[in-house]
Amino acid sequence: AVLGGGGIMAPERAGLSAPACGAPLMRRRNRGRYAPRMELNGTSAVISGGASGLGEATARVLAAAGATVVIADLNENRGKQIADEIGGLFARTDVTDEASVQAAVDLAVATGEPLRTGVSCAGIGWASRTVGRDGTPHDLASYQKVIAVNLIGTFNVMRIAAAAMSKTEPADADGQRGVIINTSSVAGIEGQTGQIAYSASKGGIIGMTVPAARDLSVIGVRVNTICPGIIDTPIYGFSENAEEFKARLVAPVVFPKRMGRADEFGHLVRSLIENDYMNAEVVRFDGGIRFQPK
To answer: What is the pLDDT of residues 232-244, one digit of tens each?
Structure first.
């Protein structure tokens, strides 16, 4: 038993018998009381940015777990190819456009399988200082574009997916209806020089996590955010100098001394979906890296 002040009370003092053979006390006393974990098999999911990188890896992981995945992306050729490979569906989607996102969510609902998962991986990068070395201020249109895609696009997918989840029957005795996973970045916590727009957009996603989880608790939807560090995706290229460049990037990583893999990100998404007590959390996925100013 845990006391309000954080102390631990021995089972015997709490009037409970100690568990035999090291078995967890609550498991023995309450076996069968709790709802089963959120199941992916036989459900549908929407993944923005699902045609490449982290989104593609997540789509493959969720599909392997039995979910029908809607790839919501602007890249029609690649998106359709991945959807065909995983037995999913493709919806050409601009995350900044309400009707476009609604159509992707409607496609998931039309499968007849309850929409339980919404994952936002769509995003763009931008590098520019607030004031350049020549004294020129940061381009306002570029800043607005990054905020529109990364932050507003994430909110757009979250709100529309959650609204569809609210119309489903509860999945378990807890009244759970779904899970939203948003993708931020370590740059949203400790942005580097030149990342003012990108860091602002990703920091905004972090800032949405707790209020969104509180808002959506009444409909049984959990919200978690992942902050990836340096992940090995095609964005870093395949040139002769690519490996040398990657080696410099991973120098600040604590352990394991390498870049993260997209499939590891997908595995984390699945873990957050299936662990019913994970809610309103911001999870770093970065090998212990702490970004330096440059």
So the answer is: 987 676 667 788 8
